[in-house]
Design goal:
Layout lengths: L21 E6 L3 H13 L4 E6 L12 H6 L18 E4 L4 E5 L4 E4 L4 E3 L2 E4 L3 E3 L11 E2 L3 H18 L4 E5 L3 H12 L3 E6 L11 H13 L3 E4 L3 E6 L5 E6 L4 E3 L2 E4 L3 E3 L2 H10 L15 E2 L11 E3 L4 E2 L8 H15 L13 E5 L2 E7 L9 E7 L4 E7 L6 E7 L5 H4 L33 E3 L4 E2 H8 L14 H8 L9 H14 L16 H11 L4 H8 L8 H12 L15 H5 L2 E2 L5 E3 L10 H13 L3 E4 L5 E6 L4 H10 L12 E6 L13 H12 L8 E6 L13 E6 L2 E6 L11 E7 L1 H18 L6 H7 L3 H9 L7 H14 L3 H6 L2 H4 L18 E3 L5 E3 L2 H5 L22
Helix pairs in contact: 1-7, 9-11, 12-14, 19-22
C-alpha cells in the first residue's frame, strides 16, 4: 500500500501463516526497482516482505517514454498495474529518500528520519543528470524526471506567450537523451538547436558515417546542429532570462531556453558515505568504479553480503549504463538469487532503437567492428541521408552487429540473430540499396526476440501454442495479451513488429485466422471498415467511432477513416471536422517541404498544356519567387510557397483554368503519356487523348495509397506504363491493360490483365480494378503488394475485373460513376469560402504576419533554394519570396 507506515525498527514482519518473513528493502523507485518488485511478486511472496522506498511522489514510471510526457503533460507513464502494490507483502512508500546505510546494523535511514531494518537490501537509486561546470549552469533545465520534462513544457509555453514568437530551445548534448529532448521541444513549437561536443551525433552508438547521415536528416527536419565544439557559458539578461550560449570558439548561439542532456552519473552516495564511515581506505566496505557506481558480481551482489545493486548505480565490467534491458535483467537476477537460484548477469546489451521526428535510428552489437577481423558491409547514400551497416565475422556468415540510420527496417529481423549465422547473405539485409524487403527469418527458439525483457522466440511460441503459463493451457491469440503474458514489447517497443509477425506465423500454422484489426481502436480491418461505412452510409468520424471504435482514435485510424470517407463521398475533405483527421499535406492541400514551405502542383492532364497556360505558370512562379521543376509525371511543380500564400497563388491558377493536381493526397497523381499517333510516326493509338480522358475521369479519387498511370502509344513504351499502378499500351487492335506496377524502394512491373481492348471496355475494366483495390487493400498498401497478397494473385484480379466472378462488377462501376459525377476541385472549393481560407495562416493570432524563419538563397542555376543551416548562421543575404532571382548569363562576368 503506497505510503504505508514503516515497521518498528526491531519488529519482524510475519506472513499469512504467522511465520516471520524476510525483510527486503529497495532503495529507489525507478524502473529497476519496479521490475524487481514484479519479479518477486511473480515468484511468490510467501515468506517475504518487500518495502520499496522512492523519493518521487509518483508510482514507478517509464523513463524511456519521458519524451511523451514532455509533449503531453497528461500522459500516464505508470509501469505495470497499480493493483500489484495492494499485495500485503509489497509496501511502496513514496516521497521517502534513503540517505543513510548502516551495513553492520542492517538498516537504512531516510531523509524523514525513519529507520528501516532489512535482511536483504537492493539498491536501485539510479543516476542523476550530469550538470555543466560552466557559468550560468544554474539557469538551465535537465532532462531526467517527470518534474524535469513538465518544467520544460511549462517554460516553453510561458516563453512563447511572453516573447510572441517561436522559442529558441537549445539542447546541449547530441546523444540519445539530447536528441529526444530536442525533438520534444520541436513538437512543442520551439526552434530546436543542438550543441554537441562530438563532431557527429550519437557518437556512443553510431560511427562517423551514420552520425553524419543522422545529422543531415534532422537538419532537413528543421533542427540546427552545432557539432565539434563545447559551450563555455550560458548568457542571460539582468532579469535572469537566458539570451544565448557562448561557445568555446567565441560564437554566441541565440537561446531563450537551455536544456542540458550530456549524460548521467550514478547515484552511489549511499556507498560512498558508508565507505567514509567504515574507516581507512583499505577497510572500505564497497568497491566503487573509477567513474562511479558500486562494483557488482555477475550475481549483482556487492562486496557486503545481503546488499545488492541493480540498474544505473551498478558497475559491471567497468561500466554503468542507463539502459532498460540490463536494469531489467539485473532485477530478475537478484529476485532469482533470493529465491535460491543461480542466475548470472551476461553483460550489457547496448542495442538502441529510436525514432526522432520521423527519422529511424538503430544500433546493436559490435557496431564499431572492434572484433578482430570483423567485416563491415556498408551502404551509404549521403543525398538521401541513409546509412546501413552490418558487421559480421570475416567469412561474412556470423552477425556481430549493425547500424541503421534513415531506414532501420532490417533491425527488428537482425537483432535477434546477433551472434548467429545469417540465413541469407549480409547484402540482402541492406534494404536501402534496393534489395527489396528484409528476408523472412525463422528465429530459433533460443534467439532473444525482446532484449529489454530477455524474452526468447521459443517463449513466444510456447505462449501462442498454449504453454499454460498464462491461463491454464489456453493459447494466446492477441498481441496485447501476448505482451502481457511474456512482457515482450512492453519496454522500448522496438521488437513489436517482429513479435506481431511471430504471433501471426504461429497462429497461421495452427489454423487460426489472424486478426487484421486496423489499430488498437478499430477491431475491423480496413476492408471491413470500408464496407461497413459504405453499407451503413456513415459520413463522419464520430459516427464510425461511436459504432465500431474505442477511445479518441490515433494517427492510424484517423487518416484512414478520413480517406475512406473521401473515397465514398466527394464532400470537401476538410469540412465537418475532417480536417483534424488528415495528414499534414492533406490539411494544407499541398506538400510540405523540408524548410516548412509548400509546393504548388496544378493538374496538367496527360502532360498536355497550351503556351498560354505555360505563361500563367511562369508568371505565377516569377511573381512569388517559386522554384520550378518539371516532374517525372509530366507536370510543373512550384516550390517555396508559404502557407498563407497558397490561396493567393491558387486563385491566380484557378482563374486561369487550372485545378489541383492533388500531389498531396493518397489519390491519383498523374497519367503520363507519350506523344502518340497524332505526331509520332511509330504511334498506333492516340495516347495523349486517352491519357487526358483517364486523368480527368479518375482525378480526385482517394485510395489506400497514391496512384499513378501511364499510356504509351506503341510497344516502344515511352510513357513507362508498366511501371505504373495502371498501365495502358497501344496495339494495332486496341489497348493492352497492365496492372500492379510500382516504383519506389521495391519496384514491380505491372502484369497484363487484358489485351486488345476498345476504349469503352478499357475504361470499364479500369473502373472495376480501382474500386476493387480501394475497397479491399490495407492502409498504405500499393497495388503491387495488394495483388501479391491476394489469394490467387493476378488470376484472382482477372476473375473479378474481367470475368465478374464475384458478381460485383456493376456495383464497382456504379461507385466509380458516382465519383466522376460528384468530383469537385478542392482548391476551387476552398477559394469560395472565407472560413476555409482561415486555415491558411502561418500564425493563428497574427494572420498577416509572415514566417521570417523561411529564407532562400540563389542557386547556381538561376533559381532559388532553401538556405542551409550554415548559410543562416553566417547571415547570408536571404532572397525574399516574390523577389526576382538574378540569372547568370553565358558570360560568367555578367548577371
Amino acid at each position: 500500500m503506497t505510503g504505508q507506515t514503516a515497521s518498528p525498527e526491531n519488529a519482524s514482519p510475519t506472513d499469512a501463516s504467522g511465520q516471520n518473513s524476510r525483510r527486503v528493502v529497495v532503495a529507489g523507485g525507478g524502473p529497476a526497482a519496479h521490475r524487481f518488485a514484479e519479479a518477486m511478486h511473480a515468484r511468490g511472496l510467501d515468506g517475504w516482505q518487500v518495502t520499496v522506498l522512492t523519493e518521487e511522489a509518483h508510482l514507478p514510471y517509464d523513463r524511456v517514454a519521458l519524451s511523451r510526457a514532455l509533449t503531453d503533460a497528461d500522459v500516464d507513464l505508470t509501469l505495470g498495474t497499480a493493483s500489484m502494490w495492494d499485495h500485503s507483502a509489497l509496501n511502496l512508500v513514496t516521497g521517502e529518500r534513503v540517505t543513510g546505510l548502516d551495513a553492520a546494523a542492517k538498516t537504512v535511514q531516510t531523509a524523514a528520519g525513519t529507520v528501516y531494518p532489512y535482511d536483504e537490501l537492493v539498491v536501485a537509486t539510479g543516476s542523476d543528470a550530469a550538470r555543466l561546470p560552466i557559468p550560468g549552469a544554474e539557469l538551465t533545465h535537465v532532462y531526467r524526471t517527470l518534474e524535469d520534462v513538465r518544467a520544460i513544457n511549462q517554460a516553453i509555453a510561458a516563453l512563447t506567450e511572453k516573447l510572441g514568437r517561436k522559442v529558441n530551445a537549445v539542447t546541449i548534448g547530441g546523444g540519445l537523451l539530447g536528441l529526444e529532448s530536442a525533438a520534444g521541444t520541436e513538437q512543442l513549437g520551439a526552434t530546436p538547436i543542438v550543441i554537441n561536443g562530438s563532431p557527429w551525433l550519437m557518437n556512443t552508438q553510431l560511427d562517423e558515417g551514420a552520425g553524419q547521415a543522422l545529422g543531415r536528416l534532422i537538419e532537413a527536419k528543421g533542427f540546427t546542429v552545432h557539432g565539434g565544439v563545447f559551450p563555455s557559458e550560458v548568457l542571460a539578461d539582468d532579469d535572469g532570462q537566458v539570451t544565448g550560449v557562448l561557445m568555446a570558439d567565441g560564437r554566441i548561439i541565440d537561446a531563450d531556453l537551455v536544456i542540458v542532456a550530456i549524460g548521467v552519473k550514478p547515484r552511489d552516495e549511499l556507498f560512498r558515505a558508508a565507505n567514509e564511515s567504515s574507516g581507512p581506505a583499505g577497510d572500505q566496505l564497497f568497491e566503487l568504479g573509477p567513474r562511479g557506481g558500486v562494483v557488482i558480481s555477475d550475481g549483482c551482489a556487492t562486496q557486503v553480503p545481503g546488499i545488492w545493486a541493480i540498474g544505473e548505480v551498478a558497475n559491471f565490467g567497468g561500466m554503468c549504463l542507463g539502459l532498460v534491458a540490463p536494469a531489467n535483467t539485473m532485477a530478475e537476477i537478484v529476485a532469482d538469487r533470493l529465491h535460491g537460484g543461480a542466475a548470472t548477469f551476461p553483460g550489457f546489451d547496448t542495442a538502441t532503437k529510436l525514432k526522432l521526428s520521423g527519422v529511424d535510428v538503430a544500433s546493436f552489437g559490435d557496431a564499431f567492428a572492434r572484433t578482430e577481423h570483423a567485416l563491415e558491409i556498408v551502404y551509404a547514400d549521403p543525398a538521401r541521408g541513409v546509412y546501413q551497416k552490418i558487421v559480421t565475422t570475416d567469412d561474412a556468415k556470423t552477425l556481430l552487429g549493425g547500424i541503421f540510420v534513415g531506414d532501420a527496417a532490417p533491425y527488428t529481423s537482425l537483432r535477434p540473430l546477433l551472434g548467429r549465422e545469417l540465413p541469407a547473405e549480409p547484402g540482402a539485409y541492406l534494404t536501402a540499396a534496393g534489395g527489396g524487403d528484409v528476408p523472412d527469418t525463422e528465429l530459433p527458439d533460443d534467439a532473444i526476440l525482446c532484449s529489454c525483457n530477455n524474452v526468447t522466440a521459443g517463449s513466444i511460441r510456447d505462449a501462442v501454442n498454449g504453454c499454460g503459463a498464462c491461463d491454464g493451457n489456453a493459447p494466446v491469440q492477441e498481441l496485447g495479451e501476448l505482451k502481457g503474458c511474456t512482457r515482450a514489447g512492453t519496454s522500448c517497443g522496438s521488437c513489436v513488429p517482429m513479435l506481431k509477425k511471430l504471433l501471426e506465423t504461429e497462429l497461421t500454422k495452427s489454423g487460426v485466422e489472424v486478426s487484421k484489426a486496423l489499430c488498437e481502436h478499430i477491431e475491423l480491418s480496413r476492408q471491413e471498415l470500408f464496407e461497413t461505412i459504405r453499407v451503413l452510409e456513415l459520413d463522419s468520424f464520430e459516427q464510425v467511432m461511436a459504432r465500431y471504435g474505442t477511445g479518441d482514435g490515433c494517427d492510424i485510424c484517423k487518416p484512414t477513416i478520413a480517406n475512406i470517407l473521401a473515397s465514398q463521398n466527394s464532400a470537401y475533405v476538410l469540412d465537418a471536422g475532417r480536417g483534424t483527421l488528415q495528414d499534414t499535406n492533406d490539411r494544407a492541400l499541398a506538400n510540405m517541404q523540408k524548410d516548412g514551405t509548400y509546393s504548388v502542383v496544378p493538374r496538367i492532364a496527360g502532360g498536355e498544356i497550351t503556351p498560354k497556360k505555360l505563361g500563367v505558370i511562369a508568371a505565377v512562379a516569377e511573381k512569388y519567387g517559386l522554384y520550378t521543376k518539371i516532374t517525372g509525371g509530366q507536370r510543373i511543380d512550384m516550390f517555396g510557397a508559404r502557407l498563407e500564400q497558397l490561396p493567393e497563388i491558387w486563385k491566380e491558377l484557378v482563374d486561369a483554368g487550372f485545378e489541383s493536381g492533388q500531389a498531396y493526397g493518397k489519390s491519383l497523381r498523374t497519367v503520363k503519356s507519350c506523344v502518340g499517333s497524332t505526331w509520332c510516326r511509330f504511334g498506333v493509338q492516340d495516347s495523349v487523348a486517352m491519357a487526358i480522358a483517364l486523368e480527368l475521369r479518375y482525378r480526385g479519387l482517394r485510395s489506400p495509397h497514391k496512384l499513378k498511370m501511364g499510356v504509351s502509344g506503341c510497344a516502344r513504351e515511352c510513357a513507362e506504363a508498366r511501371g505504373k499502378d495502371v498501365g495502358v499500351i497501344a496495339t494495332a487492335d486496341g489497348w493492352n491493360l497492365y496492372v500492379g506496377g510500382n516504383g519506389g524502394a521495391t519496384p514491380a512491373h505491372a502484369q497484363l490483365l487484358a489485351k486488345d481492348l476498345d476504349d469503352e471496355t478499357l475504361i470499364r475494366y479500369i473502373d472495376r480494378y480501382f474500386m476493387y483495390y480501394i475497397r479491399t487493400a490495407d492502409r498504405l498498401q500499393r497495388t503491387a503488394r495488394w495483388q501479391e497478397e491476394l489469394d490467387g494473385g493476378i488470376k484472382h484480379v482477372a476473375d473479378v475485373v474481367v470475368h465478374d466472378s464475384l458478381g460485383i462488377a456493376a456495383d464497382l462501376e456504379a461507385a466509380m460513376a458516382k465519383h466522376v459525377d460528384t468530383y469537385v476541385d478542392e482548391w476551387a472549393d476552398t477559394l469560395k469560402d472565407p472560413e476555409r481560407l482561415r486555415r491558411f495562416r502561418s500564425f493563428v493570432n497574427a494572420p498577416d504576419q509572415r514566417d521570417d524563419s523561411i529564407n532562400f538563397v540563389p542557386d547556381e542555376r538561376g533559381q532559388m533554394r532553401p538556405a542551409t543551416a550554415e548559410e543562416k548562421a553566417a547571415g547570408r543575404q536571404p532572397v525574399l519570396i516574390g523577389a526576382s532571382i538574378p540569372v547568370r548569363s553565358s558570360n560568367e562576368n555578367e548577371v
